[in-house]
Amino acid sequence: METIFITHPLFRLHEMGAEHPESPLRLQAIERQLQNSGLADLICQVTPKKATDEDLLRVHSLHHILNLRQRTPQHGYAEVDADTRLNPITLEAAYYAAGAGITAVDHVLGGHTKSAFCAVRPPGHHACFDRAMGFCFFNNVAVAAAYALEHYELDQVVIIDFDAHHGNGTEDIFAHHEQVYMFGFYQHPYYPSTRHSPAAANMYNEPVAAGADSEQIRHIVNTYWLPKLRQLKPKLVFFSAGFDAHEADDMAQLQLSDE
């Protein structure tokens, strides 16, 4: 099997209000495109396992986990910040979203598939070691990377953060980590208005101005990323993908195309 598709029905039940931009429609759009393109018949859909607290504690504090449990409402919403809300299903969905990456790691490194696509909600790359923010509760890709390092004895892993927003949570968790290398680009200045200067030696995150297009991103990849990636020769690469850098997405002002 070349690629598996990992998702869960709970991901559609997490929602933060009718007008919120991070909505179940995101998953519906992915699934609709898979059907329309004919790819749905060529991939194997897999249900993710639920992450354990042990999995989460590799990259988050116990205080963070307990705080989310205590704030989970029985009905309605509980605000974490101005953009980020829990509903009664959110935390359970977040455990499975974190577990999706673990499921992907087991299938890929277990030799069952060459790659995996995790269509999950809530997202994760803004979630820091001790803080939920920016629509994110647990850092899904960080949970998966830490799991892979512990269970498969890898020398290093690479995370490529493909999003208009800085993956500040992933950088917060893994800055100075000797076995994790993060490569990313993001619109700056823009939410979450974080820029670590000087960056840790394992961080290759490039801020770009509003209006940056595919040619500029290719230049970053070819000039700054590929030489280091060839040197590292990673056995496992995670893509933390948001797709809001696309020219048709009005969430940000980047101009990447399908090319």
Give a quick rundown of the structure.
The protein has 259 residues and is α/β, with parallel strands linked by helices. The protein folds into 2 domains: 1-153, Histone deacetylase domain (Arginase, Chain A, 3-Layer(aba) Sandwich), CATH 3.40.800; 154-259, no CATH class.
Describe this structure in words.
This protein is α/β, with parallel strands linked by helices and 259 residues long. The protein folds into 2 domains: 1-153, Histone deacetylase domain (Arginase, Chain A, 3-Layer(aba) Sandwich), CATH 3.40.800.20; 154-259, no CATH class. It is 35% helix and 17% strand. It has helices at 10-13, 25-37, 53-57, 62-71, 90-109, 140-152, 168-174, 214-232; strands at 3-6, 44-46, 78-81, 84-86, 115-118, 157-162, 180-187, 203-208, 237-241. A 4-stranded parallel β-sheet has the order 8-7-6-9, with helices on both faces. The protein has a 3-stranded parallel β-sheet with strand order 2-1-5, with helices on one face. It has a two-stranded antiparallel sheet with strand order 3-4. The longest helix is centred in the middle third of the chain and has 20 residues, at 90-109. The chain is globular and about 50 Å long. The model has no long low-confidence stretch (mean pLDDT 97).
